[in-house]
Known about the structure:
Blueprint: E1 2-4, E2 9-10, E3 12-13, E4 21-23, E5 28-33, E6 59-65, E7 73-83, E8 86-91, E9 106-113, E10 116-118, E11 124-126, E12 130-135, E13 143-144, E14 152-153, E15 165-169, E16 175-183, E17 200-209, E18 218-221, E19 224-231, H1 234-253, H2 257-267, E20 269-274, E21 280-287
Parallel strand pairs: 1-5, 4-6
Antiparallel strand pairs: 2-6, 3-13, 5-17, 6-16, 7-15, 7-17, 8-9, 9-10, 10-11, 12-14, 12-16, 15-18, 18-19, 19-21, 20-21
Amino acid sequence: MITIESENVVYKMSDKNDPVAYCQSGDVVEFQTLDCFNNELLSKEAKYGVDNKSLGNPATGPLYINGAMPGDTLKVEIIDILVGALGVNVIGPFSGGLKHKLTKYETKRIPVENGIAKFNDCLSMPIDPMIGVIGVAPAGEEISTIIPGTHGGNMDCRQIRKGAVLYLPVLAEGALLAIGDLHALMGDGEIGGCGLEIEGTVVVRVSVLSDKKSVAPSVYVDGKWITIASCKTLDEAADEATEMMLEFLIKETGMNAYDAGILLSLCGNLVVCQKVNPNKTVRMELPISVLADLGYVID
């Protein structure tokens, strides 16, 4: 198995980034990741805005997948996500809808042991690890790892977790996949500005699908097909995620637009992934079971 260590990070997705590893389609690769604060706030003495001097959201990589060319689709199977023993959450004036009530920054360090996050002496909760940043090099100008888009990036989608299959459009030769910003736990919306930020290890299998075109990120997990859109506003992202699912239904099942729209009204679920990044991210979920009679099967 190929391993990419956490010293190999980027802060921008770009086709100008030099690959740190190469693999073949179908290979299994391990990404070792830092938390979104570069592990600089793990010490109890560390203060946000003082001791986290590096850029935020380091993404381990990039990985060059041989044979991946623009127009292909990169299939990323999330085999496992292992997280560290200590997570960090910072909340304060940057915290989305709460910022008018939170006038100073507070940092909370939460230990994780045996799959349990110990919030305080009275409250503990099971973790649900997910990947905040996962993406490929965009076409054209570089994009910060803080910003999500059609290339993936900082989508903060809770459904990108162990067992999920993520489909990304290949926009540059080799795809140049990078992964980071793991969360041991995060609620949909990420309303406080971050989740339980934590270092860890992600194991994936990457495959190039030359006969499948993906225009934007999509996910298959737990019997759900999910389209993901990131735009300047939540309304725009919601509309785009919905239109992506509509196009999926028309293309893959032969349904007309009216029947597809009615099906989405009856069975589709629109969910906010995050509302705190420069682009907001929304997903549309549809149970694949409703398509069984149409003979649709996920690749």
